[in-house]
Specification:
The chain is an alpha/beta fold. The protein has 9 helices and 15 strands.
Length: about 300
């Protein structure tokens, strides 16, 4: 395995590359763009890279399905870190292009809902066609296949384009969450401001099946930060659920919730426990009474004494 190589959703000039370059270790790694999320992750699975950075959630569109599906299937991988990146688009064009001349536009499918209102107001007759990534859209504009692309302003220089309009976003404070994914290993030590990600499969479809999963978290005071259903491919009505929960697998409340889920789910895939981006320990929501590690330990000790006749 190449311990110095990181892959990412390419080509050069994507928001994913910009997010990856915010990591301190990126300065000492070989950063290799890949054509798709599956390609970036497969490079890790096959030992061609130590880790991959891929988008997993957008504050406007929700979960990035390509990443969620890849993490739920195939050889297991694990999340070790997350990165939050504010997202604003620029309209990139070949030098000299005027707004009135734009008839076709492109960008990543996740970008379209974030610029839909701007398009309606300024380019109502322009035809949209999706690209593999925003940077790939910029490349297609460079080649003359589209008149304009929505991408990061930083991509303009890479593809010999100019930013005709900048700071385009329908939603204020839009951001995308990226995850650094590697091969499974022991999770990093808890920081006190952590997140745990899992994928859960329902045993069978019956009234309250999803509620049973959620109760395993709720009764232990574990807050959920994301839950998204994804089809398993086994037919209509067959779903798995990608879940992000507050806390670390070594926290008693989280560990016991995962054990409870393992008892009732035919399959549970642990995707990692890792530090939450942009959250300090002091900002973590106080635990509900009865859910701290100390209280779990005290309850366990009480049970042991009761079993010994010493309660």
């Amino acid at each position: 395995m190449s311990a110095t190589r990181y892959t990412y959703l390419g080509p050069e000039g994507t928001f994913t590359e910009a997010a990856l370059r915010t990591l301190p270790e990126a300065a000492t790694r070989e950063l290799v763009p890949m054509v798709s999320v599956p390609a970036a992750l497969d490079a890790v699975r096959h030992g061609q890279a130590a880790a991959a950075l891929v988008p997993i959630e957008n504050s406007v569109e929700g979960g990035v399905t390509a990443t969620l599906d890849e993490l739920a299937s195939g050889e297991p991988l694990m999340i070790y870190r997350e990165v939050l990146l504010p997202i604003a688009f620029a309209l990139l064009v070949r030098p000299g292009t005027k707004l009135s001349e734009i008839k076709t536009v492109t960008g990543h499918p996740v970008a379209q809902p974030q610029v839909r209102n701007w398009l309606r107001a300024h380019l109502p007759d322009a035809v949209w066609e999706s690209a593999a990534s925003n940077a790939d859209g910029a490349r297609l504009v460079q080649e003359g296949r589209f008149d304009a692309a929505f991408a990061g302003e930083f991509a303009a220089a890479t593809y010999g384009l100019e930013a005709l309009v900048t700071e385009i976003h329908d939603a204020e404070n839009a951001e995308t969450r990226f995850v650094l994914v590697g091969r499974p290993a022991r999770p990093a030590a808890p920081t006190g401001a952590d997140k745990t990600s899992v994928v859960l499969w329902l045993g069978d479809d019956h009234p309250g099946a999803l509620l049973e999963l959620l109760q395993e978290f709720a009764v232990r005071g574990v807050n959920l930060m994301l839950i998204q259903s994804r089809p398993t491919g086994a037919g209509i009505g067959n779903y798995c659920f990608a879940v992000d929960a507050e806390g670390h697998i070594s926290d008693r409340r989280v560990g016991e919730a995962l054990m409870g889920l393992k008892r009732i789910c035919p399959k549970v895939r642990f995707l990692g426990s890792y530090p939450r981006a942009g959250v300090a320990v002091a900002d973590v929501r106080p635990l509900r009474r009865g859910t701290s590690d100390g209280e779990f330990t005290a309850a366990s000790d009480w049970l042991a004494r009761a079993q010994d006749g010493r309660a």
